[in-house]
Amino acid sequence: MILALDTGNTHTVLGCINEENEVTQTVQIGTDIIGTAYEYAAKIREIFDLAGIDSKGFEGAIISSVVPQVTQVLAKAVKLITGIEPLVLGAGVKTGLNIKLDDPGTIAGDLVATAVAAKEEYPLPCIIIDMGTATTVTVVDEKGSYLGGSILPGTGISLEALTKETSLLPSIDYTAPKKVISTNTIDAMKSGIVYGSAGALDGIIDRYTEALGGNIGSIVATGGMGRLIAPYCRHDITVDNRLLLKGLGYIYRKDGESRKRSTKAGATRSKAAKAGTSKPGDAGSRTAGSRRARPTD
Fold this sequence. Notes:
This protein has 297 residues and is of the alpha/beta class. It is 39% helix and 20% strand. It has 7 helices and 11 strands. It has helices at 37-51, 68-82, 109-121, 155-164, 185-211, 226-229, 243-275; strands at 2-7, 11-17, 23-30, 60-65, 87-88, 98-99, 126-131, 134-140, 145-153, 218-222, 238-239. Strands 6-9-8-7-10-11 form a 6-stranded mixed sheet, sandwiched between helices. Strands 3-2-1-4-5 form a 5-stranded mixed sheet, with helices on both faces. It is globular, with a radius of gyration of 27 Å. Mean pLDDT is 89; it is low at 283-297.
């Protein structure tokens, strides 16, 4: 079993991934930028106990984080409760993904993880919608390469800005409106958030489809708001809330396989080098001048 952590700006999701790369169980904690490793460890252990998860039953762990302040803190917390040094998704980790950005080193780990999972599990080209604090819409092409994408304000940020900057509009919950053309303030706000978000996604998908020559294999939505907004889009969108965690599972195993191959290749080279270096006194190391002179008649 592998422990995968997806750390976002608001929440951190922890998932248990089996040998078939299936996410068997998930739990969630709040992301706290001032929390210590021991505080995180205490929270995780308590939640694991409540959920019946054995903290010593993991063979490996991997972290994807978009909050740099807590990445190493979480890594220490994971080691405290599992005894395992987690793999932190970043530069040097082998993902098997060809990233076609201007600067591949700038891509966030969560975008890499969702792209890897989409490449493994869905028809390509694939458009990936991740609806968290920010909403990202990215593309993996027919060859499995990450092309890039768009970033726009998440529905939560949009709603927060709306209520903060207007005196008469109240805070509302994230539920769908009763109808598109609403007849009261609350439903009108819900209509704007839900249909406005859905319309923005539809517009981006239409432009992506055109840019890709009209060929789209699949569209997948994930993230906290994906399940709410996707049904109101005009496109056929599959909701997969475990897409990122599954991507982390694939990456953990790909990186492990790569490291094993590198270690094996290094050992082979070392063995070959030793075999080519003869010890003093070996038959192969004697020179003509070192041979015994034959007795003469």
